[in-house]
UniProtKB/TrEMBL annotation:
Domain of life: Eukaryota
Chief location bin: cytoplasm
PANTHER family found in the cross-reference section: GLIA MATURATION FACTOR, GLIAL FACTOR NATURATION FACTOR
Name the UniProt record assigns to this protein: ADF-H domain-containing protein
GO CC annotations, alphabetized: cortical actin cytoskeleton; nucleus
Protein family (similarity comment): Belongs to the actin-binding proteins ADF family. GMF subfamily.
Pfam families given in the database record: Cofilin_ADF
Organism: Diatraea saccharalis
Protein location: Cytoplasm; Nucleus
Residue ranges of every copy of the ADF-H domain listed in the record: 5-111
Keywords associated with the record: Cytoplasm, Nucleus
Single Gene Ontology BP annotation: actin filament debranching
GO molecular function, one term: Arp2/3 complex binding
Length: 111
């Protein structure tokens, strides 16, 4: 049996460009890039880009019934005085999210 690439969801050039810009920009504070799946287009879209946001604040910003992908950049001060802004990838799926969306997001995540 041969492995095949399954296209679960398209990622357009515009989204790739926003991701690239977010990744390489000089951050001064905690930032988040929130992505969602457009069910009709079966495409990943930028939902929101936030500056100066704490991870705890994301709870109030994220929808309570729809999954999201979050790329979060936060300020980290090292013991030697350096400051860096590492990024982490967060897969957010609320318990009450529609099952189809949960499956689609999980498929994208594992692809």
């Amino acid at each position: 049996m041969s492995a095949q690439n399954v296209n679960v969801c398209d990622i357009g050039d515009d989204v790739k460009e926003v991701l690239k810009k977010f990744r390489f920009q000089k951050h001064n504070s905690n930032s988040a890039l929130i992505l969602k799946v457009n069910r009709e287009k079966q495409a990943l879209e930028v939902d929101e880009e936030l500056e100066n946001v704490e991870v705890e604040e994301l709870q109030d910003i994220l929808p309570s019934h729809q999954p999201r992908f979050i790329i979060y950049s936060y300020k980290l001060e090292h013991s030697d005085g350096r400051t860096s802004f590492p990024m982490c990838f967060i897969f957010y799926t609320p318990r009450d999210a529609h099952m189809e969306l949960q499956v689609r997001f999980n498929s994208i995540f594992s692809a």
